[in-house]
Amino acid sequence: MNLEYLIRRLDELEKRVVFLEKENAMLRERLSKYENPKNSRNSSIPPSKDENRPKTNQSLRKSTGKNVGGQKGREGKTLEMISFPDVMIELHPDYCNNCGTSLIGSKSTKEQTRQIIDTPVIKATVTEYQVYSKTCSCGCKTMSSFPQGVNAPVSYGENIEALVAYFHARQYLPFARMKELLNDAFGVQISEGGIHCLLNRFAQKTTPIYQMIKQCVQESRVIGTDETGVKVNGDKHWLWTWQTQDFTFIAHSDNRGSATINREFPQGFPQATLVHDGWRAQLKTVSKNHQSCLAHLQRSLNYLNECYADNKWGQKFKKLLHDSLELHQTLDFNSEKYLSERQAIIQNLDYLVDNPPDKKHKKLYTFFKRMCKEKEHLFTFLFVPKVPPDNNASERAIRNVKVKQKISGQFKTSQTAQNFAQIRSVIDTAIKKGVNVLETLSIIAKGQFELAY
After folding, report:
1. How many angstroms separate the CA atoms of 54 and 355, rounded?
2. pLDDT tier at 435 (50, 70, 90 boundaries)?
3. CB–CB of 285/269 below 8 Å?
4. Which residues contact 94 (CB under 8 A, 6 or more apart)?
5. Residues 59-103: tens digit of each pLDDT
């Protein structure tokens, strides 16, 4: 065996080692997906999709040490008597329980009072409008006219219209179950097609308030946004939300890109801080400031730190986010302590951006590059009052869409998806205003928009 052969053989083995090392790294990377699966604790995956869910609390919140249930000293709630009941029934004894003597005509003394709260038997009322004519002495025959909205020989009234909208967008009832409920509980015979027509009619009536909500969101100083996928006749569509502390605006779209934002808010939000989860279409939206959702970032870091146990950069970044949230709890933007701690957080961020993690941790390095791009959007809430550090309010606003689809299934047409978006926008805004949802829908059904909120 000569030297030349040995050198050639060594060359081949070295190349083989390099190839196997690359293959090993690739396989380890792929295997990490199964060793450290994503779940609701370390990503945005909903809890319903977790496999082998751990028994420990998956929330980002830490335990307060308090027992589950009502806390000591809390004010309890119980049924209270009504001062002016609708019906009063007096129960007088007719004879003595001891000797049997008649007590009719004797003076009574009230001893105890008890009340039963119940609902009356629900029955739909039918109003018939009869048009008459009169003939004048001049020979002209004049006929009266039907009130506005009375357009067909038989039609459903405004209260049923509001009730259908309430069942559809607030209680998430499918058409078949709604039809059964209206029949069994209210004695109203209606088809699924009739329900669809009523929802179209009601959604059209919400248009003025829907546009008012949109305008109020546009003029707000802090706006949260999010989007979620929905099925429309088997195709993937999207429902978007832009919401504030007082208003919620939801819109249907067939895409998840900037086209939807440009359609709904072509000017963007030049006077507002936009709070979002970092989706690229939202990042490109014109706004005075952006705020990335720290809850999303914390969950991502939970996953990355599980994947790479020897990862110090991820641990430091996670602590940085935790420190910023702790500082935010002080809510004192002008104290010297607040200003100095805020400056320390910004300096730590600069240090972490200037000292990247090991490139062999590919997923973590991808996260690092994202943080470099979003660096200016991470701690806006520490500088601008009333800006939240997370996008939870927008996720709550859009979650109703998922609940609706889990119960009722997909939307059949784009119009029905937009109808739901409009009605739900009105309902969520009513809830934020603290007014009765069904009463608000009834007012809108009657066309009394000025009384809605």
Report:
1. 34
2. very high
3. yes
4. 102, 103, 104
5. 666 666 777 777 777 776 778 888 899 999 999 999 899 888 888
- 131: pLDDT strictly greater than 50: yes
Q: Which of 404, 78, 444, 205 lies closest to 435 in space, CA to CA?
A: 444
- What is the rounded CA–CA span in Å between residue 148 and residue 445? 13
Question: Which secondary structure element, helix H or strand E, spans residue 93, and what is its range?
Answer: none
Three-class secondary structure assignment of 151-203:
CCCCCCCHHHHHHHHHHHHCCCCCHHHHHHHHHHHHCCCCCHHHHHHHHHHHH
Contact 277, 240 (CB under 8 A): no
**Torsion, Cα of 8, 11, 13, 19 (10° steps):** -140
Report which residue type is found at 448.
Q
Using CA atoms, how far apart are residues 253 and 203, in angstroms rounded to an integer?
17
CA separation for the pair 281, 82 (Å, rounded): 54
Token couple for 337: 């302590």
Q: What's the rounded Cα separation, in Å, for the pair 379 and 398?
A: 24
Closest by alpha carbon to 157, among 92, 112, 106, 202?
202
Q: What phi, psi does 353 have (nearest 5°)?
A: -70, -35
Nearest CA-CA partner of 233 in 416, 404, 406: 416
Closest CA to 238 of 218, 223, 258: 258
Spell out the residues 6+ positions from residue 290 whose beta carbon is closer than 8 angstroms to its own.
273, 274, 275, 276, 282, 283, 374, 376, 377, 380
Specify the DSSP element, H or E, that contains 420. Answer: helix 414-433
- Can you tell me which residue has the tokens 């919620």? 248
Question: How many whole angstroms separate alpha carbon 378 and alpha carbon 387?
Answer: 12
Beta bridge partners of 236: 231
Residue 451 is classified by DSSP as G
Q: What is the pTM of this model?
A: 0.80
Collapsing DSSP to helix, strand or coil, 446 comes out as: coil
pLDDT at 54: 43
Helix (H) or strand (E) holding 113: none
Specify whether the CB–CB gap between 73 and 66 falls below 8 A: no
Residue type, 120: P
243, 397 contact by CB (below 8 A): yes
Q: Are 209 and 440 spatial neighbours (Cβ–Cβ below 8 Å)?
A: no
Question: Which stretch of DSSP H or E encloses residue 238?
Answer: strand 235-243
